Structures
1.
Amino acid sequence: MTGVLSPEAARRRFVGLTVLRWLPVGVAVPVSVLLATERGLSPADIGVTVAVYGAVALLLELPTGGLADAIGHRPVLVLSGAFTIAGLLTMALADSLVWFVAAWTLKGVARALDSGPLESWYVDTVHRTEPGSDLTPGLSRAAAADAAGLAVGAVVGGVLPLLVDRSGAAALALPLFLAAGCGVVHVVAVLLLVVPVRTPTASGAAALHSGVREVPVVIRATVRLVLTDPLLRLLLVVSFLVGLVLTALELLGPLHLADLAGSPEAGSAAFGIVTAVSFAAAAVGSLLAPALGRATRGSVVVSSAVTSVLGALAIAGFALAPAVVAAAVAYVTFYLLNGAAWPLRQQLLHDRTTASQRSTTLSAKSLALMLGGLVGNLLLPRLAEGAGLPAGLLAGAGSMLLLAVVSLGLRAGRDAGAPGREAPAGGQSAHDPGSRDDQSGSLPGGLRERARAGARVHGRAR
């Protein structure tokens, strides 16, 4: 059965579930690499396990997004939670490369499953009762909750091994067991709090089988939508560039801080502190997104371009800083700016897709982000080896400047036949309701009707 939640109730559940989703991830972060090292894996071995995680998540991004659009948000969220728990428990018990690869594979499946359904559920729930409402406040609070869950989890996971009367691998495995317990809490919360937006046409194995058969159809329709919508294409380019920039900071940043601090140990401690503060800064930036939208009169072009230019300057400051403190300030500043811009750009994505394709479109965006990260992993270390760490970081700054140029095309109210029409203040689009059914015409069979029904519920073209 489906239910009707008020937008405020949906927002509270969205934020709470976001915290619970990222809390176990944060708990596991401080000990994952250390535990693998303690159990005999070399840095190269650990690199293989993380690469497997990235490859699995990359390959499954679009299929799992299509699965969410086909069978519903809640079943996919539960599946993601189950794979997360299995991955954490496997990692806690792993004692060889094969078992660590298995653990990261399970986590990669969980990540792919989780990349869009909860946010899609929130958007669809809100627009069911308030078509055309501004999503930015809810998205910004959820982004802040994301960062808060990671930060709190990282503190707990880092401190716990120091508080127990154990040492070595036994102590380092405890946070992973705790993280798995947090994952169980998250799954229970999903079952209790995620109210289906639409009544499923089948149940149990029949629904799953029917949904899996529809996955390729949804993916093809979403690809067709992206290829025919210039704004969606630009948003995917933005995600690709953000992935490249984040790789520059998160791959080369620890090495740069170690150079400034004088030793790997001191650099590791400094980067741990800077990372925690950056989570908080990203949360604050996300909360400032509505104010940024008002300050720019609802123009995502201005907000995205300005924050991108300032972000490029922050990365350059980090690359050229003479001391740890100055580098830390620049690093944190970038995450503050990036956090403020994200919800406003995310609103545009939701303004350009339908309920039947939303999770798949979000997965496409996540796929672009990971592709940017993959390219960054392949190219930036080579650049840093040949020209120095600052050069690799400055390449990230250059990518942010390119992102600023791409942002000039992000006009929220632009339709294919009406380029340049700006959205009203607050970031909402001004699409003609009469265009809603045109977009669903590319969907075959029952999906076309589902898209049309979704468009009527939302009250505007998605």
2.
Amino acid sequence: MQILWLDEVASTQEWLKERYKKGEVAPPFAVLAKRQTNGTGSRGNAWIGKEGNLFLSFLIERSKLPSDLRPESASIYFAWLLKEVLTQRGSQCWIKWPNDFYLHETKIGGMITTMLKDSLLCGVGLNIVEAPKGFGKLDIEISQKELAKLFLENVEKGVSWKQVFSKYSVEFYKNRSFYTHMQNNKRVSMQYASLEEDGSITINGERIYSLR
């Protein structure tokens, strides 16, 4: 996968989306920024930070995705692939359903995916060296360039959703003390949530898919 390195950008995701729509870039393509000033977070929030944290977005053709992966579960899939790289280096981070990186009880990053025509756009932000108030940072030392390289290599392996799900499901119990948001943005407890094989969850008889 081709990787473009930028010193500073408002949002790696918006930068890549705009150029893809104009036909200036084609998948597989990734952009990594040293600094990000107005990144895209969950539910319209911004994800910003200083040099050293991970600000990465990439494009991949839908035809290159695992055949058993539902688009709604792409955030879980790619978050787990990054989490595997971090775990191999000794990190204790885990994935809060469906797209957040946590260390113990504190959020340290997130993953967002969007379908664009025949491609999937994936953006990830992770606090490697510094965290804003209310957030945490990674518990291991690794450069943003090395992490991006290892993660994208993992993406290109094309492992199946079934393989990822079998591992992710083992750690799902860590979500029990947290909340998530439904389609109407209603906040609901995950204490009794059950994880389905396609990556959705069921709470009080209602099936919920990732909105990110």
